[in-house]
Amino acid sequence: MHTIADLAAAMGAEAAGDTALTVRGLAEPAAAGPDDLALATSPAYAEGLARGRARAALLWPGADWRALGLAAAIFAPRGRLAMATITAAFDPGPAIAPGIHPTAVIDPTAELGAGAAIAPFVVIGAGARIGPRARIGAHASIAEGAALGPDALIHPGVRIGARVVIGARFIAQPGAVIGGDGFSFVTPEKSGIEEVRETLSQATARGDQGYRRIHSLGAVRIGDDVEVGANSCIDRGTIRDTMVGDGTKIDNHVQVGHNCVIGRDCLLCGQVGVSGSVRIGDRVVLAGKVGVADNLTIGDDVIATGGAGIQSNVPAGRVVAGTPAVKLETHLESYKALRRLPRLLARLSGGQKAVSKPGDTH
């Protein structure tokens, strides 16, 4: 339960009306009850406020809160930024009791920082280091030699592999796997894919051919304030570590291959696949289902739109789209031309019929 005054102060925002009013939760405007703070950050939500029963709301700047029938209001110049603070205030987080649950299995050589909370059936390996105030959910495992920074939140079922090093305030959603082996195999003879890479043509027929594993001797190194979504995987490096920079956020069902180096404050959205040995700069955004071929370099501040297939290096600051990914403006022109193609073909077909009509005197 929070007062309007406290919430406004936490956001650094202006409040009006009965700022001593308390709210117990957040709600969409039409569904809000009298104890909820309605989230109405643009005029489009005014109609919903009229249908709901909220006494207080988070409003757009300049809104007439009295005319909207409210007793109190908070004004948010940037609504989504205000949401970051206000949702944090109401999020209790997972229920992980303080201390170590008796069913947890912790190697005697592991080190646990002050205030760490370990849930049921957690396994922590030899020599692992768990930072102060870290919270580890049920059935998670931290392998031998791994290091987890302060204030980490590890949700249930997460797997952190051997020798992985993770910074402060890390969040891993359920089922994430950090530090599995890289997908790295080789054939005794030159493989079809190697031939295609060299010739850019059809591979010759081959008989039976087996694959031999290249073992992953590296680990994964992750900076501060990184988040990894549910069921996402970051593979360990072959010799050197796979690396993820400070502040990077990785969505659900994302694959980061072995030896990749990802910069600071990047966003990798759902179903992104990054092949091995890719270097990604700072502040890069890969939208949903973007695929990146191996051994490429993507510069700082690149944005790849949803479904883009990146098959060559991308210079800093470029926005790319399509498969193969090209400049956004080039992709849009190509798409427009593709949409015109049926009409052009129909006109061409009509012209051919006219030319070939029997008895044509032209």
Outline type: flat
Main sheet? 12 strands, mixed
Q: What amount of the residues lies in strands?
A: 25-35%
Name the average pLDDT: 94
Strand order of the largest sheet: 8-11-14-17-20-25-28-31-34-37-39-40
| CATH architectural grouping of the domain at 2-90 | 3-Layer(aba) Sandwich
- Termini separation comes to 87 Å
Helix content: 10-25%
CATH topology of the domain at 2-90: Udp-n-acetylmuramoylalanyl-d-glutamate--2,6- Diaminopimelate Ligase, Chain: A, domain 1
Count all strands and give the number: 40
Low-confidence stretches: none
Please give a structural write-up.
The chain is an alpha/beta fold and 362 residues long. The chain has a domain at 2-90: Udp-n-acetylmuramoylalanyl-d-glutamate--2,6- Diaminopimelate Ligase, Chain: A, domain 1 (3-Layer(aba) Sandwich), CATH 3.40.1390.10. It contains five helices and 40 strands. The protein is flat and about 75 Å long. The termini are far apart.
List keywords for this structure.
40 strands; 362 residues; alpha/beta; 10-stranded parallel beta sheet; 12-stranded mixed beta sheet
